[in-house]
Structure formats: C-alpha cells, structure tokens
Here is the input.
Amino acid sequence: PQDAQAKLEVVRFLGATKGQPAATAELEKLMAAEPDNHEFKFALAGLYQSQGKTTEAEVVLRQVIDRSKD
Here is the structure.
C-alpha cells in the first residue's frame, strides 16, 4: 500500500496474526524507507512501549522531537 494509514493497518494485522516482533520488524522497515514519516515513528514507539522497551521508545520519540526543531 502507498497510503501511510493502509501501511499501518498491515502492521496491526501482522501484530494480531504473527505477533509484536513481526509488527515491529515491519515498522522498522517502513521507517527505513520513509524516515521522515512521523506516523510510523509514533506507532513504533507505541509498540516498543507495549513491549516494555522504554529506552527504544524514547530514542524514537527523541528523533521526532529533534526533526521537528529543523
């Protein structure tokens, strides 16, 4: 899919069917392809948070903050 929301639906589907690690991997792939897409970063931070990976979530959120300063 080309629409960000459609891509996030795929991520949610992966999370529901194959688990959070599969959803996380897909989001990381999407972020690599579209590094300026904040929707993907917020979704990834949320996934990290739900997995107890607060340090990783903080890193992603700080990237959003740093980019917003530009």
Observations:
- The two ends are 29 Å apart (CA to CA).
- The chain has four helices and no strands.
- Residues 4 and 60 are 18 Å apart (CA to CA).
